[in-house]
Structures are given as structure tokens and as C-alpha cells.
Automatic annotation (TrEMBL):
PANTHER family, sorted: RAN GTPASE-ACTIVATING PROTEIN 1 (PTHR46761)
Domain WPP: 14-107
Region (Disordered): 499-544
InterPro entries xrefs: Leu-rich_rpt (IPR001611), LRR_dom_sf (IPR032675), RanGAP1/2 (IPR045203), WPP_dom (IPR025265), WPP_sf (IPR038214)
Protein name: WPP domain-containing protein
Superkingdom of origin organism: Eukaryota
Keywords: Cytoplasm, Nucleus
Chief location: cytoplasm
Organism of derivation: Oryza sativa subsp. indica
Length: 544
């Protein structure tokens, strides 16, 4: 017998499938975002989610499912993690299906609290929001809400969103809610009167408000109810009794000047608020003054969202000054307003008082170069720890690129940078891309779409991210990059640590487009040599 074969012992390998790497988790979020925002049988039936809403949902789903699977894995420490992976995939698919069936909503799901809040066990959460939006009348309400009247139930969090309550259903719900209000800490009654006549909707709100009066809530969501001033005042009894709110969501509620005033007057204390969101309202400058008063009384705010609220320069200045009292702020979202330069300058002064800022969303504010430079000069000193910076649609051109580059060089923790829909052109791209090339090991997303970029600018940004570990997406869509330029970008990505898969869609790129008029094109030709010389230092480094 062959002694070699006789003595051979097979080697065993132990492969751990859990936890997934950060890059794997990010890729999953991107895939889910694409699936949620792509036409399908569900979108034709329930509506198509926008990219921002899809991404927010995808991120939330992944975080929830990862936490659940990780807890499962801790219970089987000697296993290879395969069952945790299966649970992770199963729960992800399940929650994605729920989001698709719910359809698009202007309100994103409440974000995970900035504060460290322990997750509640499943039997403390009562949620009837799943499935297609439906009208609820008395008989169905009795059946749906029956778990809430069982003796000894431990429900602390209730969600009635996506169900439209009529008077009959509200009269059933009222006594039930009143009987358990002392144990409730979180109430979501967003989108719960959709399609009802105004008078009926207001009566339903009053019934719920009366029933919940005196509850001690940390979380309240009354979004998507087209409140206006009448709706806010219909919740008077509930709002006036709240002294301990930590999270308040009033999004897509038709919050006008009068409604904002009513809201500011009715809530007795916002001192404990950590999250305050007013997205997609008709607040305007006058209403912003009342929102600013609430903000001033909320020194513990950690997340403030006041995007798409029609606020102009005066309101923007008032908000910016009020935010100076919120020195614990970590996330600030003011996107899609009409601030202009003056409000941008006011905001730049406030940002120096926010040392804990991690996410900053300032897209579509008409900041122009002057407002932008003032803000980024402040951020360079006060917020080098920033992880997300969005400044799309602000008419930023190459003249601001050097200041931007200096700021970005200081921000080595950046994970996402959005400069889309500006006017950087190739001149600005060369400078900004150079600032991102060294360091920035955590950068995952870079969006410079619709910036009049051509071949040179596209190559610069590709070289800047080609070797970033775990990088997820480079968006250079909507520019004027030639076919040869696209091929060069792909070659750069292939030769680096990242593959060409990180390159976003190019369906809106115009390879024959012109970035400038004839006079400017002549100047560009004269500068070609200078641009090419700058590129010499931007080549991808490869290991020998």
C-alpha cells in the first residue's frame, strides 16, 4: 500500500459566511434601490418610487434586516452563519415587497433615531400599515384593532398609517386608544384620512386627538394628512399635552404660515426634541419664522429636515440663525428651497457652531458661488468629520472649485459627495478630482452628473476613485463625454481596484453635446495643453 496515501489526512476549512462586509452591504442597498425605483408589475399597479425615496427605504430595510440577522447569528456562534444569511435575504425580500406594495409616498419612513434607543420586542409594536391603502369603517376597525383590547397587551408603539379611517372607524378606535394611551410611547397616524371629505377628516382627527390626550409620547408622526391650519388645530388636545417629544414628523401636510404658527403655539415644549422633520410643505418665508421659533426652543435637535418648503431668503436667514442654538445637530437637510446667496451666507455663520455635523444636504438652494464658498470655507474648519455632503443644483462653476477642493481635502471621512447639476465643466473637475484622489478611503458615492463635463473631466473623476476600497457608484451621467472618453473612463476603472461596475448609467450622456458657446470653445482649445499637463499627475497607481 502507498504510504503517502495511507498517511494523508484531509484538511478541513472553516468558512464564516456572517457578517457580510461593508461593501457587500452597500452593494445590497444599491441593488434594492434600483429594484425599488425600476418599472415593474408592482410599480404599474401601486406607483413608482423616486430614487431618493427608494434609497431611503433600501437603507432602512438593510439596517433592520442586518440587525435581525446579526442577533440570530449571536445565538449560533459555532455555526458558519448560513442561517443568518438566509434570514437576512428572506427578511430583505419581504420588506422590499411591502414597500413596493405600499407604493410611493412623499413621506419617508421615520429614520432610525439619532439617539441610542433600544429596539422594542415585536409584541410591543402594533402596525396595520402593510399592504395596499384601504378605507376602514367600523366593522373592520373592530377586527383590526382587537389585539389592542386584549388584557395585559404590551403595545407601546402603534402605526395606523396607510389606512383611511372614517367617522365610524374613528369612533371604534377612540375608546380603544384612550384605554391604552398611558402605555404608548410612539404613535404614527400619518396618512390615516386619505380620500375623506374635509369635514369628516377633521372630525376623525379630533376623535384621535381627544383619545390620545395626556399620553406621554417620545415619537409622533402626523405626516401625509393635508392638515393645513384646520388640521393642526384639530390635533390641539393631543399636541398641547406633549411635553416629552423626542421625534416629530409633520411632512407633506400643507403647513402654511397659519399652520406653522398654530403648530408653534400648540406644542408646549420642544426642549427634548431630537428629530424634527417638515419636508414638502408650503411654509414660505412667513411660515419659516414660526418654524424658526420652534427650532430656537429645541437645543437638543440632532436631525432637522425642512426641505421642499418654499422658503426664500428671509425665511432662510431666520432658520439659519435659529439653528445656531442646536449645537448637537448631526443631520441637516434644507434641500429644494429658494434661499439664495444671503441665506447661504447666514448659514455659513451658523455651521461654525455645529461641531457634530455628519450629514449636510444643501442641494437646490440657489447658493451660487458666493454662498457656496462661504459655506465650504466654514465646513473646512468646523466639520472635517462630515460623511455626507450634497450641494447639487446651486449654479456652482469652476471659479469655486479651488475653495471646494481645499474643503474636500480636509474631509477625509466623506462617504457620499453630490455636486450634480452644477456648471463645473472640465476646469472645475480637474481641481476637485485631484482633491479626492489621495486619502478618502471611506468614499462610496460620487455624483457629478449634469456638469457640462467632457472627456478630460470624466477621466479625472474616474482616476480619483479608481482605487477607493469598497467604492460603490460614480455618476457622470447627463454630461457631454465623447464615446472615446467613455472608453477611457472604463479602462481607468478596469485598471484600478474597482471594476467598471461602479460606473453609473450613461443613458443621458450626450457624446456630441457642447459644453460652451463658440467663443468659450476657442478658449478651451487654448487651454487643452494646460489641462493635459494637469492630468499627468492624475494617473492610476498600480501595484507592481
Amino acid at each position: 500500500m502507498d504510504s503517502t496515501k495511507q498517511d494523508f489526512q484531509p484538511r478541513t476549512f472553516s468558512i464564516k459566511l456572517w457578517p457580510p462586509s461593508e461593501s457587500t452591504r452597500l452593494m445590497l442597498v444599491e441593488r434594492m434601490t434600483k429594484n425599488l425605483s425600476t418599472e415593474s408589475i408592482f410599480s404599474r399597479k401601486y406607483g413608482l418610487l423616486g430614487k431618493e425615496e427608494a434609497h431611503d427605504n433600501a437603507k432602512r430595510i438593510e439596517e433592520v434586516c442586518f440587525a435581525s440577522a446579526d442577533e440570530h447569528f449571536k445565538e449560533e456562534p459555532d455555526g458558519d452563519g448560513s442561517s443568518a444569511v438566509q434570514l437576512y435575504a428572506k427578511e430583505t425580500s419581504k420588506l422590499m415587497l411591502e414597500v413596493l406594495k405600499r407604493g410611493p409616498r412623499t413621506t419617508v419612513e421615520p429614520e432610525v433615531p439619532v439617539a441610542d434607543t433600544p429596539l422594542e420586542p415585536a409584541d410591543s409594536v402594533f402596525d396595520i400599515s402593510g399592504g395596499k391603502r384601504a378605507f376602514i369603517e367600523a366593522d373592520e376597525a373592530k377586527e383590526l384593532l382587537s389585539p389592542l383590547i386584549k388584557p395585559g397587551n404590551a403595545y407601546k408603539r402603534i402605526c395606523f398609517s396607510n389606512r383611511s379611517f372614517g367617522i365610524g372607524a374613528a369612533n371604534v378606535a377612540g375608546p380603544i386608544l384612550e384605554s391604552i394611551k398611558k402605555q404608548l410611547t410612539e404613535v404614527d397616524i400619518s396618512d390615516f384620512v386619505a380620500g375623506r371629505p374635509e369635514d369628516e377628516a377633521l372630525d376623525v382627527m379630533r376623535i384621535f386627538s381627544k383619545a390620545l390626550e395626556g399620553s406621554v409620547l417620545r415619537y409622533l408622526n402626523i405626516s401625509d394628512n393635508a392638515l393645513g391650519e384646520k388640521g393642526v388645530r384639530a390635533f390641539e388636545e393631543l399636541l398641547k399635552s406633549q411635553d416629552n417629544l423626542e421625534e416629530l414628523y409633520v411632512m407633506n401636510d400643507g403647513i402654511s404660515e397659519e399652520a406653522a404658527q398654530a403648530l408653534s403655539e400648540l406644542i408646549p415644549s420642544t426642549e427634548k426634541l431630537k428629530i424634527l422633520h417638515f419636508h414638502n410643505n408650503m411654509t414660505g418665508d412667513e411660515g419659516a419664522m414660526f418654524i424658526a421659533e420652534m427650532v430656537k426652543r429645541s437645543p437638543n435637535l440632532e436631525s432637522f429636515r425642512c426641505s421642499a418648503t418654499r422658503i426664500g431668503s428671509d425665511g432662510g436667514v431666520a432658520l439659519a440663525e435659529a439653528l445656531g442654538t442646536c449645537t448637537r445637530l448631526k443631520k441637516l437637510d434644507l434641500r429644494d428651497n429658494l434661499f439664495g446667496v444671503e441665506a447661504g451666507l447666514a448659514l455659513s455663520k451658523t455651521l461654525s457652531k455645529l461641531p457634530d455635523l455628519v450629514e449636510l444636504y444643501l442641494s437646490d438652494l440657489n447658493l451660487e458661488n458666493k454662498g457656496t464658498v462661504a459655506i465650504i470655507n466654514t465646513l473646512k474648519q468646523s466639520a472635517p468629520q462630515l460623511e455626507v455632503l450634497e450641494m447639487a443644483g446651486n449654479e456652482i462653476n469652476a471659479k469655486a472649485s479651488q475653495a471646494l477642493a481645499e474643503c474636500l481635502t480636509a474631509m477625509q471621512s466623506l462617504k457620499k459627495l453630490t455636486l450634480a447639476e452644477n456648471e463645473l465643466k472640465d476646469d472645475g473637475a480637474v481641481v476637485i478630482a485631484k482633491s479626492l484622489e489621495d486619502g478618502h478611503q471611506d468614499l462610496k458615492e460620487l455624483d457629478v452628473s449634469t456638469n457640462m463635463l467632457q472627456r478630460v473631466g470624466a477621466r479625472c473623476f474616474a482616476q480619483a476613485i479608481a482605487n477607493k476600497p469598497g467604492f460603490v457608484q460614480l455618476n457622470i451621467n447627463g454630461n457631454f463625454i465623447s464615446d472615446e472618453g467613455i472608453d477611457e473612463v472604463k479602462d481607468i476603472l478596469k485598471s484600478g481596484e474597482n471594476s467598471v461596475e461602479v460606473l453609473g448609467p450613461l443613458d443621458e450622456n450626450d457624446p456630441e453635446g457642447e459644453a460652451e458657446d463658440d467663443e468659450e470653445e476657442e478658449e478651451e482649445e487654448e487651454d487643452d495643453g494646460e489641462l493635459d499637463s494637469k492630468l499627468q499627475s492624475l494617473k492610476v497607481e498600480q501595484d507592481d
